[in-house]
Amino acid sequence: MDIKFYHSIFDWMKTCQKYFDQDEPLFQLLITNGSYLMEHHEEKAFFGIGTSHLNIQIIFMYRPPYNLVVHPFKDICENDMMMFAKSIFSKEPQIPGINAPEMFAKSFSECFSHISRRNYTPHLQMDIMVIKSLKPVILPIVTCRLAQQSDLSFMNQWTIEFSEEALHETPDLSTVNEKNLERIAKKQCYLILDEQNNPRAMGLLTRPMKKGIAMTLVYTEKKSRGLGFGIAVAHYLSKIAFEMGYHYVSLYVDKSNPISNRVYRKVGFNVIMDQSDYRFSWFYWQFNHSDV
Questions:
Q1: What does pTM read for this prediction?
Q2: Domain boundaries 134-267, CATH class
Q3: What does the CA dihedral 225, 227, 232, 233 come to, rounded to 10 degrees?
Q4: Is the pLDDT of residue 114 over 90?
Q5: Are 209 and 22 in contact (CB under 8 A)?
Q6: Which helix (H) or strand (E) holds 97?
Q7: CA pair distance 269, 249, nearest whole angstrom
Q8: Of 112, 169, 223, 257, which one is least surrounded by beta carbons within 10 A?
Q9: How far apart are CA 90 and CA 288, in angstroms?
Q10: pLDDT value, residue 86
Q11: Domain 2-125+276-291 has what CATH class?
C-alpha cells in the first residue's frame, strides 16, 4: 500500500468528495475536520490516502488535539499496517490516539505502539447509528425547547456528568461553560421539559453536513431516568432535524450501554458501523528514527 500525504486540504477534499457523498454518515468526522481545516490553518494537521493498484484503501486525517481518524475500505494486511503506522509516526510521533473501526484501530495501535514504544489502551467502543425516519413510540407528556443562558446552572453539571459517564473524561468547568455558551448561541442545544416545565433531559444537534446532522450529548438527569425522557430527546431532536430538511441523523453510541442502544432503536436508529477509540500513553522513547 502506498501512503500519500496531501499539501492542500482542498486537493484532499476533492479526491475524497465522491466517497463522502456516497456514504456521508460513515465519514462525518473526516468531513467535519476537513471542512474546518479549509477555513482554519493548523500547522501540525495532516491528511492523506493509502492506495493499492490505484485504488483507495484508506482515507485518514489528523487534526490536533484530536485523534487520528481513519476510514478503511477493506482489511489491511500486517505489512501494510506497519508501513502506515511508520508513516504516521514520521509525521507526528505524539498522536493521542486513533478513531477507526475496531479491527483497524486495534491493529494500528499494536503497530504504532511497537514503533513508538508508547502503550495503548482501548478507550471507547462505539456504534455509529443512523435514523432516516421515525418509528411510532409512546412518549411522556413533555415539551422541547432551545436552551438559554439561564439554563447553564444545570446544563454545565449535566455536561460534566455526561462526559464522565459516556466518554470517561472529566472536563474543566470553565471549558464546559464556554462550550455551552457557544452551543446556546448557535442554537444547537435542546431541552426536554416535563408537565411542570422542569428540565429533565437535553441533547445537541451538531456537525451539519450536506444531507444529515449529528445528535450528541444526549443526557437525562439521574433522578429522571427510566421515565421515557431519553426516548423523548431522541424523538424530538430527530423530528426537528427532519423538519430542517436533513435526510438523516447520526449518533455515536457507547457499546457498553445497551439500555441507551435499545432506546435509540425504538425511535428508529440502526447501526451502520462500529467505531473504536484507542489512546496512546504520552511518553515515548527518543530513539533514532533509522531504528524504525
A1: 0.88
A2: alpha beta
A3: -10
A4: yes
A5: no
A6: strand 97-100
A7: 9
A8: 223
A9: 11
A10: 98
A11: alpha beta
Distance (Å, rounded) from C-alpha 144 to C-alpha 139?
12
Mapped onto helix, strand or coil, the DSSP state of residue 69 is: strand
Residue 95, all three cell numbers: 498522536
The C-alpha cell of 15 is what? 479526491
Cell of 92: 507526528
Domains 2-125+276-291 and 134-267 belong to one CATH topology: yes
pLDDT digits (tens, 9 = 90+) for 122-155: 999 999 999 999 999 999 999 999 999 999 999 9
C-alpha cell at 7: 499539501
pLDDT at residue number 292: 37
Task: Tell which residue, 152, 201, 143, 140, has the closest CA to residue 181.
Answer: 152
Between the alpha carbon of residue 72 and those of residues 105, 125, 218, 292, the distances in Å are: 10, 17, 28, 24
61: β partners: 47, 69
Q: Is the dihedral of CA 162, 166, 172, 177 positive or negative?
A: negative
Report helix, strand or coil for 251: strand
Task: Please state the domain extents for the chain.
Answer: 2-125+276-291, 134-267
φ, ψ at 23 (rounded to 5°): -135, 60
Coil, helix or strand at residue 1: coil
Angle between helices 28-39 and 9-22 (to 10 degrees): 150
Contact between 261 and 120 under an 8 Å Cβ cutoff? The reply is no
Q: Where are the alpha helices (DSSP H) in the chain?
A: 9-22, 28-39, 78-91, 102-116, 152-162, 173-185, 229-243, 258-267
User: What rounded mean pLDDT belongs to the chain?
Assistant: 94
Please give the grid coordinates belonging to residue 158: 449535566
pLDDT at 167: 86
DSSP 8-state secondary structure symbol assigned to residue 153: H
pLDDT given at position 283: 61
Residue among 49, 122, 62 at smallest CA distance from 91: 62
